[in-house]
Amino acid sequence: MTVENHYLSKDDLTPHQKSKISELREKASKHLAKYPDYDTDFSLLRWLMGWDYDIEKTSLKLIELGGLMCQDDEGNVVYMQALARTHPRSLIRAGGVSDLFRLSVVEAELAFKLVRKAEEATGRKLGAKLVIDLDEFSMDVLYPPALNVYLNLLTLLQALFPDFGRHIYVINCPMMIKTVYAMIQPVLSKQTREKVTFLGNDWKDVLLKELGAHNIYSHWGGTKPSELPTGDIRMGGKVPEKLQFVFNLNIV
Prior knowledge:
single chain; alpha/beta; CATH 3.40.525.10; 2 domains; five-stranded mixed beta sheet; 5 strands; 10% strand
């Protein structure tokens, strides 16, 4: 059996690989436009090799990374976080804390790169707008071990990307939002706290006015086209058991 060379030069790319790279690039073109750093032959080849050159599966996995909803008309990046739908008890068993920190920093840096490019084009200081959706909130979100990780992550991101957040909108707030916010507020910088807005029942109208209907997926009241109402936003849920750490099975 021939073992595929995973560390090849451009001259070593086979016609089959070149064809698959072109096919994946076309299939994921909309997503790659938002994340241009992924749009290289070697980057796409990594995804293809990782998923056995299955274009459908590879394109879905590539798109699943998305949390960025758009860049607004000014050039600010807009993130939608379906925070209340996460399942911390299973998520914390799916990988190391360092993995979460590393991926979060990389994702933030990629967004920062988009902003820097827009700033260069517009001559204006821009940033990130974050929409936190607390629909389906439950106390499970406040699972203490995971909450401590989140708070440390917030502290790290604020240290690495000071004043990057331009506005934070919190929607579908539960009745106990004041209690929840009191647990998070101590780690937020003064500048971050000043940018938080808790929206009421008119949150759709506010988002449409501030972000534009064409920049918002239909699930949140906009007209942004997508095959799914939520676009490529990560909508959370319980982590499959096959991806969770099982003590007896993970001992080397």
